[in-house]
């Protein structure tokens, strides 16, 4: 009986494929992953940039972390991914040739790619739902619900975050520059859109951004995220939503008019500039 339990425990141990990688570029980065024969990397649909001959790919329902997972399990996993707004399928890229082969993945907007060794992050990493790019096969990609109602309503990412679990490499991307912060029993207050993800024993909550005057006139939003505990936090300097807002603010509006900078000075500047 004890031997049977030991075998079951060994089957549940995550053994991700050991892949090598290189991150290329500066602000529009590409991660190039080198696969030995038989090795596989999983990625979000549409993330692949280029691949060498010998790499085969297949869209599958699930991340492949549990080979014995049945159809119902795969359907449950796909349903959870649908809640995050991601595709129901993930693409599995496998080196089916002889010798080492490379496949690369790129982020969908300007920013940085961060490599994460999950074995050095307590075996898991919680990130915003659109941060995950790719990972070595064996990594479990699931969802994590925020613990507090306030974080769900005002946190900028809703109730659902993505959770990466395993003992191998995973890659996330973020807008602008990625800043790594180590906190040890302290509190870190962050703009809700600037959080990429966090590991370790980190508690995530939402708190009011100062007094009513600061909330309404400070320009920092009504709420800030507060991270407390011990672990690693990754932040991004330019959330994609902020980039979109700035582009839309300067885009031509109906009738050929351009929206100003949100103040009377913006209109005056247009008059001086001849717009």
Structural commentary:
The strands form 3 sheets. Strands 9, 11, 12, 14, 15, 16 and 17 form a 7-stranded antiparallel sheet that branches. A 6-stranded antiparallel sheet has the order 5-6-3-10-13-8, with no helix packed on it. It has a 4-stranded antiparallel sheet with strand order 1-2-7-4, with no helix packed on it. With 275 residues, the chain is α+β, with helices and mostly antiparallel strands. The protein has a single domain, classed as 4-Layer Sandwich (Double-stranded beta-helix). The chain is globular, with a radius of gyration of 22 Å. The termini are far apart. A hairpin with a 5-residue loop joins strand 1 and strand 2. It contains 6 helices and 17 strands.
